[in-house]
Design brief:
The chain is of the alpha+beta class. The protein is 23% helix and 17% strand. Strands 7-2-4-5-9 form a 5-stranded mixed sheet, with no helix packed on it.
């Protein structure tokens, strides 16, 4: 018997909502079968099974939201099949932690990965594999000759940077994802110039977690209460955190874009009917990337009392969708051509509206 847990399907995911079960108790499951659809803070994702067997129990019904790591189903030999639909969890049973994660208990393990970055990246596929049972819990690096569990994007990044995946411990139940590769690269960059630890008396005070404030106004009898989707909750939380923790300043300026518009017209005139047309937004993305390249201190962040200058220039583009707002990322925009940026931006926007971002 093996337990299927709510997987970590994105870098910022803390909980997931079961939108649809594609398999029912008693169904045979083969390795690689899609067993469920899960709504995350960014998109609807398909969950693939690593193991084969008979689906014996469904522990989380459609529409319920549970933290990552919580058991959602049981796969076994078929001797203990339970056809009954699981009862809805009481509100007290749902995760109420302010950080969106369940208490670290054996029933609800919490991922120990580093804090997720605030961006969205598109994986090579629109589904994610989930380990089941003990096989998915990686307590040590993969031994010689064993198969390394990694997402397609993580494998591609490892190949590009010449990284041996056996050196990395996966945080997604033993499966290596993009965040693990980025953490490994960050550690490699930091090793040559590792600063000495400051004395406790000189340590910078930790940044306090901001708690979003809700309305204190009492509800009226005719007020309509609407439940938010996982994506809408994340958008609300991110906007509140951004406004309360990031210093805001506003700059207004006038820019003569006559030459830029003339260039856009010239490039689009040379494009055939099936080619990608360049928008003004594409030109702005390229201009922002070149500006960050010229002024690298702007492409920096403050972390753990240190000033971190990022080597890659990635530009987020806001995409309005029916359920909220998502910000997919165009990576290394400074070294991409305008037409390449236009093509990628349109593809990301289409995936966002189709709920296929990962």
């Amino acid at each position: 018997m093996s337990e299927v847990s709510m997987p970590r399907l994105s870098d910022t995911m803390q909980e997931g909502t079961i939108t649809r079960w594609l398999k029912q108790p008693g169904d045979e499951i083969k390795k690689g079968d899609i067993i469920a659809e899960v709504e995350t803070d960014k998109a609807n994702m398909e969950v693939e099974s690593f193991d084969a067997g008979i689906l014996e129990q469904i522990l989380v019904k459609e529409g319920e939201t549970v933290p990552i790591g919580q058991t959602i189903a049981v796969v076994g030999s078929g001797q203990n099949v339970q056809q009954a639909t699981p009862a809805a969890s009481a509100p007290a049973e749902k995760n109420e932690a302010t950080n969106g994660q369940a208490p670290a208990t054996p029933e609800n393990p919490v991922s120990s990965s580093s804090p997720a970055q605030e961006n969205t990246n598109v994986a090579s596929n629109n589904f994610v594999s989930v380990g089941t049972g003990p096989n998915s819990q990686s307590s040590q690096n993969v031994a010689e000759g064993e198969r390394v569990k990694a997402s397609p994007l993580a494998r591609r990044m490892a190949e590009e940077h010449g990284i041996d995946l056996r050196q990395i411990k996966g945080t997604d139940h033993g499966r290596i994802v993009r965040a693990d590769i980025e953490d490994f690269l960050e550690q490699q960059r930091a090793q040559p110039a590792q600063p000495a630890q400051a004395a406790p008396s000189q340590a910078q005070p930790a940044v306090q977690q901001v708690q979003p404030l809700g309305s204190t106004q009492a509800l009226q009898e005719d007020d309509e209460v609407k439940n938010l989707s996982s994506m809408q909750k994340t958008v609300a939380r991110r906007l509140m955190e951004s406004k309360q923790t990031v210093p805001h300043f506003y700059v207004s300026n006038e820019v003569d874009v006559t030459d830029a518009l003339a260039l856009r017209k010239q490039l689009n005139a040379a494009t055939d009917e099936n080619g990608v047309k360049i928008s003004v937004n594409d030109l702005v993305i390229k201009a922002c990337a070149l500006a960050l390249e010229k002024f690298p201190d702007v492409n920096s962040s403050f972390k753990d009392g240190q000033f971190v200058r990022h080597q890659h220039i990635n530009i987020g583009i806001a995409v309005d969708i029916p359920n909220g707002l998502v910000v997919p990322v165009i990576r290394d925009a400074n070294i991409k051509g305008v037409r390449s940026i236009a093509r990628e931006a349109k593809a990301l926007a289409a995936k966002a509206r189709a709920g296929k971002l990962a």
